[in-house]
C-alpha cells in the first residue's frame, strides 16, 4: 500500500517538481551548514562545544543542525525567525494594531509576515554581535583562543555573515513553502535534526560490536522507539470535536444554514513551544556557568543538568505552565463564541454567548491537561533512556516532536495532491474514497 503510494508520487508532474525543488533547497541548506565564518579556530571551537553540552548553546545547536558548533554562515539557524514569530504572536494580544491585522485576512497576514522579517533581521544582528563579542573572550579547555584576530573588524564581519545567513535560510524556507511541498521553515529544522541520525546509528553499531550494548537491548530499544513514535502520531492527530449546529436563515428568497458541523480542539494546541521555552529557562544557569567561574553558580548549573531530579521536576512544571499560557494566548474562547453567535451557530444544549465561551474554555482546559502530560512524558523520556539505560543517542524531547509533526504535515500535503488527482494515497481510507468516486 505505502510502496504503491510512493510510486504514485512521481506520476504527478506538479507534485514531482515540488518534491525535487524542496529537496534541492534543503541540500543547499545542508551545504551552507559546513561553510565556516571567517576568523575562527575550528579546533578550539569544537573543544569548547564539547564542554557546552547541556546548555542553551547545545539547544540552539540542535535547531541549527550543527551549524553553531562549527560557527558556519548558518550558525544562527532559523531561531531568530521563530523567535520573531513568537514575539509577534504574543504582541498580537496586547497591541490593537497587530490584532486588527491578524483579522484582516490575506493582506493582514502579509503585513505581519513583513514585520516578522524585519524582526528576524534585527534579532540576527543583536545575536550575531553577542556571539562575536562572546567568542573573543572564550578559549578551548587547552587555553587556545577561538577567535584568531579579535577586534571590530571580526565583529562586523561576523554580524554581517550570520545575519545574511539567517536571511538566506528565511528565504529558502519561504521558497519551499511557496513552490515546494510542506512548511519550509519546519522542513529546515527537520533537516537539521535528522542530519544527526547517521551519527546516532553509527554509535549504536559501534557499541553493539564492542559488546557494550546487547542485541536484546537493541531490539527492546527499537520496539520502544516505534511505540513512542506511534503514540506521538496518535496524539498529534487527536482532536476533541465539539458539535456545532447552525440555524436556518432566510436571505431574500433563499434559505441558508441548518447544517451540523464541529469545532475541532487539538489535544496539543501549543505544539513544541512549551518544551522550547522550558528548556531555554532551565538551561540559562548552565549557560552562564560556562562563562563565569563562580562556585555557587557552578553548583546551580550542576543541579540543573538533564537527568537530575531537580531539573526534571522544573522542566515538567515549566512545560505545564507554558502549555496553558500559550494556549490561552493563541486561542480565545470568547472570540470563537462571538463568531459562532454572529453566524447563527450554537452548541446543542448550551446557550450562545458567555455560556458557550465558558463551555469551550472548560473543555480546552481539560484537554490541555492531557496535552501537557503527553508533552512532559515525551520530553523526559531522553533523560531516562540516557541516565538509566545508557542509550548512546538522544531520542525523544522537542526534536522528536518536531520531526514527527513535520513528517505528518508534509505527508498530509502530499496526500492532498494525490487525492485531488484521483491517485491512491498513503492512507487506506483515502484510497478507498478515491476509488469509490471513480
Mind describing the biggest β-sheet?
Answer: 3 strands, antiparallel
The dominant shape is globular
* Main sheet strand line-up: 4-1-5
* Computed CA radius of gyration, to the nearest angstrom: 24 Å
Low-confidence stretches: 429-438
Mean pLDDT: 80
How many strands appear in the DSSP assignment? 5
Q: In sequence order, what are the helices and strands, one letter per element?
A: HHHHHHHHHHHHEEEEHHHHEHHH
Structural class assignment: mainly alpha
Instruction: Give the second-level CATH assignment, the architecture of the largest domain.
Output: Orthogonal Bundle
Assigned CATH class of the largest domain: Mainly Alpha
Helix count?
19
Per the CATH scheme, the topology name of the largest domain is Preprotein translocase SecY subunit
Approximate strand percentage = 5-15%
Number of domains: 2
Kindly, what is the distance between the CA atoms of the first and last residues, rounded to a whole number of angstroms? 19 Å
Annotated CATH homologous superfamily of the largest domain:
SecY subunit domain
Give the fraction of residues assigned to helices: over 70%
